[in-house]
Amino acid sequence: MKKVLLFALLLVLNQVISAQPASSVLWEIKGNGLSSPSYLFGTLKFIGANEFKIPTAVAEKIKASKTFAIEDQVDHHAQHELNVALHFPKGKSLATELSAEDYKKVVDFFQKEFGISKAAFESKYAHIKPLALSILMTRLTLREKVKYYDMELLLFAKKNKLNAFSLENIEREAQAINAYPMFNQVRALLHSIDNFATQKAEFQKMMASYPQETLEEIFDYTLHPVENNPIFVEEFYFKRNMEWLPKIEKMMKENASFICVGVSHLEGQQGLLELLKGKGYVLTPIPVAK
Length: 290
What we know:
Structural class: alpha/beta
Largest sheet: 6 strands, mixed
């Protein structure tokens, strides 16, 4: 009889454990002296307006918090500064950084894929740095209005009277982008063009399944244009994660906090999940449905 009861108990425990997600975009943070739990949420940078929704679990955890944080400032000054950083300085453009053959390849691609004429491309798009342009290409594929998760969640947090902060100023993100050598940026742009059909299909799949997509799949997707370049990963993700960590800890110790960052900042040995665990916090994945 005892063996039967023990077997039944193990079966129930196994079902409970199996029901817990091994990976999630939303995590509860406890322990290490915290008086109340905080939450870490990984978002897509943008998504089609028709696909956008604030998941119920996310809305509940924001309402349960007192402090809300996103990566960067989103005011007009910040957006202007980022826009400047993503454009070539006067006298330079894609035409000066690419070979004549590669430049024609890019122009022809934009005309064929997006219906953007050569004149329109040279007036507007040729002045955008290659890495930013490769990201913009994904947004152009949507052919619909987009929603930016960080901005939408910030509005939701303010509506619910949370104190809102940013983890860095916009110049820091610009610095991280510009730390990626121009040669590698050009290579990333050409790689995206050569593999655009695959990347487009992958983004559509990810957009349709987010937020159920695993962290590993999303992280891999974001690194496809740069071909997993270690310079980009170090400069854009890991260095910034290390800089954010003490700020996040300070927020959590002062108040229940909801921290919203790009989902790729969660993944990896130097991702925020592992960094927080290394500090002694207990992280538990929270199931998220649309």
